[in-house]
Each structure stands twice: as structure tokens, then as C-alpha cells.
Amino acid sequence: MEPQLGDILVVDDSELIHKFQGLVARRLGLTLSHAYNGLEALAMTRKKRFRAILLDLNMPVLDGLSFLETLRKEELGEPVPVVVVSTENQDEDIRRALERGATAYLKKPFTVEQIAEVLQRILNLPSSAAAR
């Protein structure tokens, strides 16, 4: 069994998105944790430091922008990379996410290659990791 390269958190209210992003994460040698809303994700980030977070904006209980804003206020040390993955694709949506501390922004629908590329880039993973 190959060593795990780190745990990433997927914050999305869609089970299908969790499964799809889980496939990509495993292909890259990453482990995956799941949260279905921003409030659940905040509780998880208060207990554990994740290597990266894949975040939807439209969720019940606590939306992605509010989660991101709170996360950045609470972080100590180096910020966790946060990739927003959303159907909200207007320039204003992207600007608001980046202003609140998003590291990258992917538009839904996305491909396996797009998720893999952004994770490889922000986590400095070898490109050969995607071939697993």
C-alpha cells in the first residue's frame, strides 16, 4: 500500500460530488473527509488540519462564503488551500470567493483532470500521481 499524501476535506451537500472527488483524491494518493455544510466543516477544521479543502458555495446551514470567511478568521499559521468548486460562475462570485481567501476557483461541471491538476498544483504533488 502506498503512503497517504494527506487528508483533504470535501464540503458539498451533494453525495455525487463527494464520490466523484473521492475518486480523484484516491488517484492522487490523498485521503478524503466529508462535510455536507459549512457548519459541519468548521467543526471538523477546529479538530484537524487538512491539507486542502474543496468547497461548494451553495449549501444549507452555513454557505461556502460564510464558511471560508470564518475559517480564515480562525486559522493560525499557514492558511489551508481552499478550492471553490461551484455552479456560481459569474465574475462577481469568483471575485467574492477570492477576496475571502479562496486559493483557486473551479466551475461546475468539472472534469477529473481539472480537479487533479488544481490539487497537484496547490499541494505540489508529482504529476505522475494522477496515473495511479
Briefly say what this structure is.
This protein has helices at residues 15-27, 38-47, 64-74, 91-99, 112-123, and strands spanning 7-11, 31-35, 52-55, 82-86, 104-107.
Structure explained in plain terms:
- Helix 2 (about 40-45) runs parallel beside helix 3 (about 65-75).
- Helix content is about 40%, strand content about 15%.
- With about 130 residues, it is of the alpha/beta class.
- It has helices at about 15-25, 40-45, 65-75, 90-100, 110-125, and strands at about 5-10, 30-35, 50-55, 80-85, 105.
- A five-stranded parallel beta sheet has the order 2-1-3-4-5, with helices on both faces.
- The chain is globular, with a radius of gyration of 14 Å.
- The chain starts with 6 loop residues before the first strand and ends in a 9-residue tail after the last helix.
- It has a single domain (about 5-130), classed as Response regulator (Rossmann fold), CATH 3.40.50.2300.
Kindly estimate the percentage of residues that lie in beta strands according to DSSP: 15-25%
Question: Tell me, what's the shape?
Answer: globular
The CATH superfamily is Response regulator
Quaternary structure state of the chains depicted: single chain
- The CATH topology is Rossmann fold
**Biggest pleated sheet:** 5 strands, parallel
- Sheet with the most strands: spatial strand order: 2-1-3-4-5
Q: What's the overall average pLDDT, rounded?
A: 87
Count of strand segments: 5
Helix content: 40-55%
The level 1 CATH classification is Alpha Beta
- The structural class is alpha/beta
Poorly predicted residue ranges: none
Tally of individual helices: 5
